[in-house]
Structures are given as structure tokens and as C-alpha cells.
Design brief:
- The protein has helices at 13-22, 87-98; strands at residues 2-8, 26-28, 31-37, 42-48, 53-58, 72-75, 77-78, 81-82, 84-85.
- It is an alpha+beta fold.
- Strands 1, 2, 5, 6 and 9 form a 5-stranded antiparallel beta sheet that branches.
- The two termini are 27 Å apart.
């Protein structure tokens, strides 16, 4: 199993994440809490740490199934091959988000 970076439509990260989990595909969307101001109040909302991106863990043969949800556009490619993210990088992002 490898981690891949999936590029999504703007503001579709959570929707794609939900559809991937419904299809039993392991996915990770790091989020951060941000204070936003409306005209009458402030509110704390969760936003993706990396806008338009989420991480998908899959086997090489079946990673293209992650492109089926609406909002999933493509994988981040390096020289025509989907970029593989090492496990320790994902762990470092998880530690960063939790701290």
C-alpha cells in the first residue's frame, strides 16, 4: 500500500473524503481550525490544511478507483507517474495537525 496525493475541485475535499470512506478506500484529509468572521459573529470552522488536496492509501493496481467520486480530478504526477508519499511524511503531517 502506498500513499498518493489526490487533487480535487475547490471546496470538495470533505465530500471526496466521505465518498472514498464510503467506498472503503483509506483516505486522509488534514484539517485545521480557523476563526472566521461573519457580519454578525465569529465562528470556528475546520478547513483543509492543504486546499484542493487529500491523501489516498491504496495499492498500485487499484489507486485509480479513488478518481470515481465527484470532485476528484487527478493524482499529482511526477514524470507521468503518480507521486508516492512515504509513510513517515504522512505521520509527520498527523503529528503537526494534532499538536
Amino acid at each position: 500500500l502506498h500513499w498518493y496525493v489526490l487533487y480535487t475541485r475547490p471546496k470538495h475535499e470533505k465530500q471526496v473524503l466521505q465518498e472514498l470512506t464510503d467506498r472503503l478506500i483509506e483516505a486522509y484529509l488534514p484539517t485545521q481550525k480557523v476563526r472566521r468572521r461573519w457580519s454578525d459573529r465569529y465562528k470556528i470552522v475546520e478547513e483543509p490544511l492543504f486546499k484542493n488536496y487529500l491523501f489516498v492509501r491504496s495499492q498500485e493496481q487499484s489507486f485509480r478507483n479513488a478518481l470515481k467520486p465527484y470532485g476528484a480530478l487527478s493524482f499529482v504526477m511526477v514524470e507521468g507517474i503518480p507521486a508516492i508519499i512515504p509513510d513517515y511524511e504522512i505521520d509527520a503531517v498527523r503529528i503537526l495537525v494534532n499538536s
